[in-house]
Design brief:
The protein is mainly alpha-helical and 263 residues long. It has one domain (3-200). Helices cover 56% and strands 3% of the residues. It is built from 10 helices and 2 strands; from the N terminus they run H-H-H-H-H-H-E-E-H-H-H-H. It has helices at 3-18, 31-59, 62-86, 90-105, 114-117, 127-133, 152-162, 174-191, 203-220, 228-231, and strands at residues 141-144, 148-151. The chain has a two-stranded antiparallel sheet. The radius of gyration is 18 Å and the shape is globular.
Length: 263
Amino acid sequence: MTLIQAIRHAVSLTLLVLVPLAFAQSHDPFESTNRVIYRVNDGLDQAVLRPLSVTYQTLTPDPMERGVRNFFQNIGEVRNATNNLLQGKWRATGSSSGRFLINSTVGLLGVFDVARHIGIDRQVEDFGQTLGVWGVGPGPYLVLPLLGPSNVRDSSGFLGDIWLSPLQYSQLNVLERSGLATLDGLQTRADLLGSDSLMRGDGYLVLREAYLSKRNYDVSDGKNVSDSFLDNPVGSASDEDFVDEGGFGTANEPDDNFVDESF
């Protein structure tokens, strides 16, 4: 299957699932189930993923971490370029394509972000955002096992984005792909360690509102969006029942340094 065929196949399947939900509202009808999955995710994070990420960050020199992060972000430029194209953002498409070309060659497979140093910034887009631009509503809020906060539109978009990874068309075996996926996950979680302190009050609500606010901002490119989460954060210190539950951190991505480029 060629890349173009894969994109066409992913678009067709996703639209088939999402058209009935095009005008659905971003609500949380599955909150009881979502909370159960959130607690399981949080337990796994606290018991396994966070300690491993702390160890990884402690033992890995900063330049090596930066190289790992750059490598996976470079892989994500194919996704960025494709979704910018699908949204009709021609300049951003050129930027993402140029970044991939420059960093994959001069930047040694993306380990060095040469494009950034010559003024070509990242233009992060995904298929969930593309569907939103096309008018598909977010649908009900979901918490996915291991993956965390999402909604019907974005979880379907995630499946489409998987086929936009160059690693899908590489000659890597299952063990090698699993190793890269583990490294990607560790780097992503390590980059989120600084956000753990933001999880105050009801961690589930904080994460949900942060995710929904950010995705609304992403789809609209920040145009005419009032952020109710930032204006009145659920987990503020003024909450009467303050409990520091920890967790995965927010869905925010400061400086785009910890985007999970899945494959």
